TrEMBL record, chain A:
Stated name of the protein: ABC transporter permease
Organism: Halarchaeum nitratireducens
Family the entry assigns: Belongs to the binding-protein-dependent transport system permease family.
Lineage start: Archaea, Methanobacteriati, Methanobacteriota, Stenosarchaea group, Halobacteria
Keywords: Cell membrane, Membrane, Transmembrane, Transmembrane helix, Transport
Domain ABC transmembrane type-1 as annotated: residue spans: 72-250
Transmembrane segments: 16-36, 75-97, 231-252
TrEMBL record, chain B:
Organism: Halarchaeum nitratireducens
Full protein name: ABC transmembrane type-1 domain-containing protein
Assigned keywords, A-Z: Cell membrane, Membrane, Transmembrane, Transmembrane helix, Transport
Keyword Endoplasmic reticulum found: no
Organism domain of life: Archaea
Regions crossing the membrane: 20-43, 74-93, 105-127, 133-152, 173-204, 224-243
Length: 263, 258
């Protein structure tokens, strides 16, 4: 890896070096934020681009007044249920398709039809069936996350090291034990990769569904705040949901590293 | 394409029937159930009605125009992001100053659900084409830049050293060694970015209107003409399939030396 560090404070004692390096690494973001603060109200109108201090104040306000709490809760519920469903169904389907030709023949054509379809294009259809609200958002999140999980699970289950299976067979492992003790553990790393790929799509589809078809949720709050001119609150809501997405992505990566001790 | 005689034998016909029977079954079931009036037509119009609507929308030019608007917005934006993303990605991998500046920005910016910025772009740039195109640029920049950066970092150092040793200049090194060696990764970035470009365009069109497939689709829901919604989804699936095939074909053709 050709990562060349611009500055390595190797002459400082260890804990300080770490802190100094951290600060140095994040200067660019500080530059951006300060630039934004200075530009706001001077280069561009404050209403068009509220300064970071105003956005920070609005973020605190949204929590202090409790305004954001129900929206955040409903969004988290939607993304959690949608992603959870897609993991359950996706793993089952992916592994099922690798174990049984009948299952594969039945589902393969549907998967290859919805694979190239940007799932947010289904929001109007979900709206038609389920109306405005949680069910529509959950359905869209579910559909958006399903494919990466199915494909990774299926791929992994079809490519389980044959030597592992043969060795287990040779030691007299039954079909059921083989499935639970060999196939499933061997596919877990790729299933986790599939979930990791699905998380950003979960948030994109959640916000899309909420922008178009919801009376609650972070997406709706962003839209409402924007349409009545509460711009600091609009930016604050975006910051909050981005922080949630960021935590989900990097948090999941941390968990994956802890869980996958055997790879 | 040359026809392979063996592909016409009985077993492969059975195979291809096996792989699509469930779809045929579903479509037949769709028509039968709706004809029997078991489902309220607003939720699910008859398949034949949807097909009629599709033909009508295409022949009246409405669908073609909407598809043109959507694809134009998505691909102009994607082209902008491709240029910016590849340039910045390569600079990040080759230049310590750029790496220092852009790495934390990419780390923070990549996971942001860009779609939440749609109301912001409506505020900044209005609801016209320009606003949608800039939104696509901003949304698709990240995967392109990250893949270009990572691919450039992984270019075999021996290749670069050998080229240098033979006296290759900076410019030739970039065009003849680094870009070709990184091109599979760059192409992957574009493949990831294409559906994101479409997602952003559809959602923006649904929220803000201004024509395009997203607007046409949501108009079907709001105007109680659900056949129109289904017809547009058919069109989107077709476009998605064609784009996917095109990208794969382009990949094998352009990168066949890898």
């Amino acid at each position: 890896m050709a990562t060349h560090d611009l500055w390595t404070p190797d002459r400082l004692p260890d804990p300080f070096a770490g802190v100094a390096k951290f600060l140095f690494d994040w200067i660019p973001l500080l530059v951006l934020v300060v630039g934004w603060e200075v530009a706001s109200g001077r280069a561009v109108s404050e209403s068009v681009l509220p300064p970071p201090t105003a956005v920070a104040a609005a973020t605190v306000d949204l929590f202090a007044t409790g305004e954001v709490i129900p929206h955040l809760a409903v969004s988290l519920l939607r993304v959690g249920v949608g992603l959870g469903l897609s993991i359950a169904v996706g793993v089952l389907l992916g592994i099922g398709m690798s174990q049984s030709d009948a299952v594969e023949d039945f589902f393969d054509v549907f998967l290859s039809l919805i694979y190239p379809l940007p799932k947010t294009a289904l929001v109007p259809l979900a709206l038609l069936w389920l109306g405005i609200g949680t069910k529509t958002a959950v359905l869209i999140v579910f559909l958006a996350c399903l494919l990466p999980i199915v494909m990774n699970a299926n791929n992994a289950a079809e490519n389980v090291d044959q030597n592992l299976i043969r060795s287990a067979r040779m030691m007299g492992t039954s079909d059921r034990r083989l499935f639970w003790k060999v196939v499933i553990p061997a596919t877990i790393p790729e299933i986790l990769t599939g979930i990791r790929q699905a998380i950003p799509f979960a948030f994109i589809s959640l916000i899309s569904a909420e922008l178009i078809a919801s009376e609650q949720g972070m997406g709706r709050l962003i839209r409402d705040a924007g349409s009545i001119g509460r711009y600091p609150a609009m930016f604050a809501t975006i910051v909050i949901i981005s922080a949630v997405a960021y935590t989900a992505v990097y948090g999941f990566e941390q968990i994956r590293e802890r869980v996958l001790v055997w790879t | 394409m040359d026809v392979d005689v063996r592909s016409l034998d009985a077993s492969s016909v059975v195979d291809s029937l096996k792989s699509i029977y469930s779809l045929v079954l579903l479509l037949v079931l769709w028509e039968v159930v709706t004809r029997m009036g078991l489902i309220y037509p607003y939720f699910l119009p008859q398949l034949s009605v949807v097909i009629d609507e599709f033909v009508l929308l295409v022949s009246s030019g409405q669908m073609i125009h909407a598809a043109y608007l959507t694809l134009m917005r998505a691909f102009v934006g994607l082209a902008g992001a491709a240029v910016a993303g590849v340039v910045i990605g390569i600079l990040c991998a080759r230049n310590a100053l750029f790496e220092w500046f852009f790495d934390p920005i990419i780390k923070i910016g990549y996971p942001v659900p860009v779609i939440s910025l749609v109301p912001v772009f409506m505020l900044w740039f209005g609801i016209g084409d320009v606003s949608k195109i800039i939104m696509v640029v901003v949304g698709t920049f990240w995967p392109v830049a990250v893949n270009a950066r990572d691919a450039t970092r992984q270019v075999d150092r021996n290749l670069i050293r050998s080229a240098r040793m033979m006296g290759t200049g900076d410019r030739r090194l970039l065009w003849r060694v680094i870009l070709p060696a990184a091109s599979p990764g760059i192409f992957t970035g574009l493949q990831i970015a294409t559906p994101i470009a479409l997602i952003i365009t559809f959602v923006f069109e649904m929220v803000a209107g201004g024509g395009g497939l997203g607007a046409l689709e949501i108009a079907g829901v709001r105007g109680f003409n659900s056949a129109q919604t289904y017809a547009v989804i058919f069109a989107i699936i077709a476009i998605g399939l064609v784009l996917d095939r095109l990208l794969r074909a382009a990949r094998t053709r352009l990168l066949d030396w890898t």
